């Protein structure tokens, strides 16, 4: 008996009553047929998820798909605010009378300001199976700005002896108003990403695997001479120039037209492909990090069954990243970690080897970027970046939350390809600087990237046209570094790439442990062969202690001996020439 009474007390005190809450059509009636439709908020003791802001991931940059009611445009003539009425119908499904005790409407975000006043059409007493209408009167300024053109309205409703209920909806005072899209998060994002990309570009050496691709020319050398006389440099990445640019153009066009035509259906396919890329690149990136410390932490190189310890650690870390990304519904900071993995992996696997190749790679990319910008301006125009994050919120974009949300946009974002391609060029100037023993080109290219991104953000603030970043970043980077090369009288070498590139030609020159004969899989031969690099200098002690003190190795004077020998030979020839005459 006591349990039954307690259950009744809890039910009557804490449960929300069996009512139906629904919005009618916005008045005056608007033209947009897809907006302002009647919608049920609460029915059968369950709230509609599109009226519950908490149902949407808080840390995800995907725009909130909360139910919205939008005014097409405001009448600029007249005085005072314009009024728009949204009727809320409350139907009592209980078998007893209930009394509406509290109904408040506030802005969900503190920096928004659209006043809403509720107006009852009758007494707040609902008889069984009867309805009342509450008019939500929205007051809109005739001249709107970023703070009063759009708002998320939070409604709290409570009946006597029952628990209250919160629900939210969006209200837009002027659908034709385009808010200023600048937020300081844009500057933070591009500055952080520029620093990340230049750091990644300085670590272009591949550590995680050592393989050598046997080309037809190399295979012919194997047949003609001893295998130990064939020079096989470890694989250090694929070269980039115009064929790779054309391949990227083809993939981009396929993805663009497929996504614009099918949207939600294409979203699933693209997400699966991106997740596959994330798994592979994060595994490779973590393996590269562990490979960097393979000599400092020897246990990383120890084998367990068929793989090394660092391989297992890389698998675990990459799996954890993907798990957190999916389980917590795409939080922006986990997405950025996956973006860094993609950038770091691709910068190691693909390399530009000259300014000439950079031009052949960048020019087709800028052409396709301009084409895509024109296409997007004709189709989605102002909301192109919101559409991208709504349907394709993946780690292919670097993200940072806005300090002040705007309609359909929660985060600043930039495509990682707008960072990756300049990163390829930063990798090249880094290797060129190492050859010249300077930091000039890398610093100039970095500031070219940073200034280009800032210019792009500022121009996007002025105009809604979707301008590509490549016409700012890549042009500035190439022009500034080329001018420096001309001034330093190094343009021919910088343009052609004809210099000693240690990372590509002899990446493990200073790593004694890796100069020993290494087992390399010969692709094309179908066998595993011991290969010793040609002209490999074995390590020797140049100074030894003997009975009479320190003894210097004769190899130190090999160069001097050869010089003396050549001088003696020239003197003998000259003496013979004089004796002859």
From TrEMBL:
* Signal sequence segment: 1-15
Looking at the record's lineage, which domain of life comes first?
A: Eukaryota
Q: Name one GO molecular function term.
A: aspartic endopeptidase activity, intramembrane cleaving
Which Pfam families does the annotation name? Peptidase_A22B
Keyword Magnesium found: no
Topology in membrane: Multi-pass membrane protein
- Per the UniProt entry, what is one GO biological process? membrane protein proteolysis
Query: Main localisation, per the record?
Result: endoplasmic reticulum
Annotated Gene Ontology cellular components are: cytoplasmic side of endoplasmic reticulum membrane; lumenal side of endoplasmic reticulum membrane
InterPro entries of this UniProt entry? Peptidase_A22B_SPP (IPR007369)
Its keywords, alphabetically, are: Endoplasmic reticulum, Membrane, Signal, Transmembrane, Transmembrane helix
Q: Where does this one sit in the cell?
A: Endoplasmic reticulum membrane
Question: What residues form the membrane-spanning segments?
Answer: 184-203, 238-257, 269-290, 311-328, 334-351, 358-376, 412-430, 439-459, 465-486
PANTHER family in the record, alphabetically?
MINOR HISTOCOMPATIBILITY ANTIGEN H13, SIGNAL PEPTIDE PEPTIDASE
Name of protein: Uncharacterized protein
